[in-house]
């Protein structure tokens, strides 16, 4: 297959050739020691990536699977929850919680806008039955990064369990699980970690683990209590995506050898470089992520058409808006195996269309 | 990584080098036409593999994920179900159904023994509230293949929905979904289809789809109604395991170009050859599968020790028994990229230890 386009979407991303090579290693049996070593190393890398001492679990599933795992393992029917949402993926928390019969209160902000902490605090204080807060580190649909540190301080002060979807931003935007008082966090392989899609993961601290033991929602494939039992031998309860895990292990090792903070810096530099080159355009988010740039279309321009033209003419794939934002924004991912020169080229091309 | 051993376990299996090569193809974006074509072809191949005109769904999950998808999408709390079980994976259906609050009646037979159809029929007739029957085509824990055709006739006659876990046997043991009156069936990538683990799939007919629309169990990541909506454009609702899907697509294409029946014949030949070479040993199942051979240990021999020795001495990996069968049986898989000469060698080696 000829390469049809280079991916500048906010995930999945271009994978380094060295990580791809990992996929052709001999298949290990998942009940053998060699596999256990691989799994145990990967879990330790993830602990460093999240900056946590909590438990870490690796799932054979997309990121949404990890989000559902959070809900199933924490929440029971009729539980009171708060969702702080500012886009499509915040809304996914709400939808998930509804499916499991939770009551959902909400601080919902317009796409691209960050809610003030005071408003979040007021909402929590006026509804003291809330047990869990669900929110998003980096909203892939708008390119906004949230003030998780601020939300974590409130959650801690008010004694709530804070659950963060870090699927998009992890590795690109600053994130400290323990220091920022985040109790549960989930991520996926195909974003800033530049691995093939198919694996997601989550971390959970002692305080939230108590809720896992008590939660009454039906769960099996994502039942963390079962994963916990198998982890005593560094195994997974079911056949994992073994080859994908090789590439993921490799990518994490590469990142961790230089430190997570270097990865954050790299993404920050990419974002600055790209935006400087792009010049005078209007951005959607008030607090932009380093993982992606989201550009508002000028009056009379339609993003869907522009994206199609750029794909056909330059073999560069950008992302359209989702749902109500379709045609109105262009989303450009800065994650994965991309060179600065490529980013500058994309900015230069885009400029001509805006 | 040096190859630590060749896999003769009943999945995951050795993958053909050509399928591994597929994993290094450029990553397609899952919202693009080229990916849709890949997905649509894969679904059509699966339809041929299952011998069905039903709907087919591909999941990024292990086989157990597909089993849970069957339960979530069909069964509501307090539903009456029947599990026909003869091993660890039959018991998994029971466990899953309990988690979702279903009532489970059971025809449970000792490991390796096939229940007579008359007993299954009697059980169904004496409990006419049963709506769903759950069973297993090939029980990986015992090497037994079930009489699904016979069970299907009863299910049809009695107006029940029949759900079959074909994760292990599919492609190795005969199976006709529509002709045998199976309403729902699930499978996985890493068995007779010789693909990397990480993908599972299921097929469902019109009659069972009515139950999907009515079922009240909480579900999101595996919600088939959502997959159905996205399939109108041949997309998946969440980022799929794109690279793994390339290898899976390749393997299915290869199988289908020669016909499923040829694959069954190949596995039957492998099983006969292996068992002929093995000579006079005692087998666990009364109705052995073509996917694997399960040997009972003679008096005074312990399988765990023998498996360890064969692994260390010959770099050949065999499977021990699970749960109560640990130490008492050896399970040898015949699936995947294995040559006849290799199978004969394994049989010759095993003979010396028995």
Summarize this structure briefly.
Chains A, B: The modification N6-(pyridoxal phosphate)lysine is found at residue 191. The structure is a homodimer of 354-residue chains. Chain A is an alpha/beta fold and 354 residues long.
Tell me the strand order in the biggest sheet of chain A.
2-10-9-8-5-3-4
Structure class of chain A: alpha/beta
Helix % of chain A is 40-55%
Uncertain segments of chain A: none
User: How many distinct domains of chain A?
Assistant: 2
Estimate what percentage of residues of chain A fall within beta strands: 15-25%
Count the DSSP helices of chain A: 12
Q: What's the β-strand tally of chain A?
A: 14
Radius of gyration of chain A: 20 Å
Shape of chain A: globular
In the CATH scheme, the class of the largest domain in chain A would be: Alpha Beta
- Largest inter-chain interface? A-B, 57 and 57 residues
InterPro entries (chains A, B): Aminotrans_V_dom, Aminotrans_V_PyrdxlP_BS, PyrdxlP-dep_Trfase, PyrdxlP-dep_Trfase_major, PyrdxlP-dep_Trfase_small, SP_NH2Trfase/AEP_transaminase
Family (chains A, B): Belongs to the class-V pyridoxal-phosphate-dependent aminotransferase family.
Modified residues (N6-(pyridoxal phosphate)lysine) (chains A, B): 191
GO molecular function, one term (chains A, B): alanine-glyoxylate transaminase activity
């Amino acid at each position: 297959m000829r390469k049809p386009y280079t991916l500048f979407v906010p995930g999945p991303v271009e994978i380094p050739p060295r990580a791809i090579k990992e996929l052709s290693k001999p298949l290990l049996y998942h009940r053998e020691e060699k596999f256990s070593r691989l799994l145990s190393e990967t879990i330790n890398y993830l602990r460093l990536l999240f900056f946590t001492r909590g438990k870490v679990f690796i799932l054979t599933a997309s990121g949404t699977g990890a989000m559902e795992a959070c809900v199933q393992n924490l929440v029971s029917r009729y539980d009171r929850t708060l969702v702080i949402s500012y886009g499509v993926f915040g809304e996914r928390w709400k939808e998930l919680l509804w499916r499991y019969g939770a009551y959902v209160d909400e601080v919902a902000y317009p796409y691209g806008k960050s809610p003030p902490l005071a408003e979040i605090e007021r909402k929590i204080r006026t509804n003291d039955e809330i047990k869990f807060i669900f929110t998003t580190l980096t909203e892939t649909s708008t390119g906004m990064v949230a003030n998780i540190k601020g939300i974590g301080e409130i959650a801690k002060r008010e004694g709530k369990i804070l659950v963060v979807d870090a699927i998009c931003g992890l590795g690109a935007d600053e994130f400290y699980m323990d220091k920022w008082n985040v109790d549960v966090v989930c991520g996926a392989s195909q974003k800033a970690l530049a691995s093939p899609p198919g694996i997601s993961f989550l971390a959970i601290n002692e305080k939230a683990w108590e809720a896992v033991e008590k939660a009454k929602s039906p769960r099996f494939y994502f039942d963390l209590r079962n994963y916990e039992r198998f982890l005593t031998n560094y195994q997974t309860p079911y056949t994992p995506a073994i080859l994908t895990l090789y590439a993921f292990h490799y990518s994490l090792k590469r990142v961790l050898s230089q430190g997570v903070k270097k990865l954050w810096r790299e993404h920050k530099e990419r974002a600055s470089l790209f935006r400087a080159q792009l010049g005078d355009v209007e951005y959607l988010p008030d607090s932009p992520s380093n993982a992606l740039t989201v550009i508002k279309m000028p009056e009379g321009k339609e993003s869907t058409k522009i994206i199609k033209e750029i794909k056909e003419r330059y073999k560069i794939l950008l992302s359209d808006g989702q749902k109500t934002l379709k045609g109105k924004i262009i989303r450009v991912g800065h994650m994965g195996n991309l060179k600065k020169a490529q980013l500058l080229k994309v900015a230069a091309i885009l400029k001509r269309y805006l």
